[in-house]
Amino acid sequence: MPAAKLKAYLDSNNVKYLSIPHSTAYTAQGIAAVSHISGKELAKTVMVNADDKLIMAVLPASKQVDLLALRKLVGAESIRLASEREFKTQFPDCEVGAMPPFGNLYDLRVFVDETLTKDEEIAFNAGSHTELIRLAYGDFERLVQPTVGAFSRTTEARAA
Fold first, then answer.
1. Residues spanned by the domain of 52
2. How far is CA 104 from CA 35, 38, 62, 82, in A?
3. Which of these, 140, 160, 136, lies nearest to 148 by C-alpha position?
4. Distance of CA 20 to CAs 40, 48, 133, Å?
5. How big is the CA angle at 21 (ends 17 and 26), to the nearest 5 degrees?
6. What span, in angstroms and rounded, lies between the C-alpha atoms of 54 and 61?
7. Residue 120 belongs to a domain with what CATH number?
8. pLDDT digits (tens, 9 = 90+) for 62-116
């Protein structure tokens, strides 16, 4: 069960959370739709390679990572989106692409876009493409201790 490690961690830290099962969905916006959660309230985890080290960028599902802004926040010389091949073994208990934003459980630094800090609660993948966890943002911040900054941008429609 992919969420077992995360749930055990939350339980051991006395965190109240809600497990939300949903039909299979692979994209953040798809998950928001099937789970009836706004894309602004759903946090997605994007794996990034910064100076040849993996980091987690956590931002609203309705936004995209601004790599230039994230590079400045991280203090990296180079930055790019990580390939699936680079990170899939880092999360042996998760389905590929469904890792929760708890980098501290996987020895990864976590960077959170400041827009998420304004939400009372956040929801995110629980390690599978069929379950979300919802909890208070304050509990997430207390347990993960992410670096917070501005590194998201609104998704723009591309011209044909």
1. 4-148
2. 26, 26, 24, 18
3. 140
4. 17, 27, 6
5. 110
6. 20
7. 3.90.960.10
8. 899 999 999 999 999 999 999 999 998 999 999 888 999 999 999 999 999 999 9
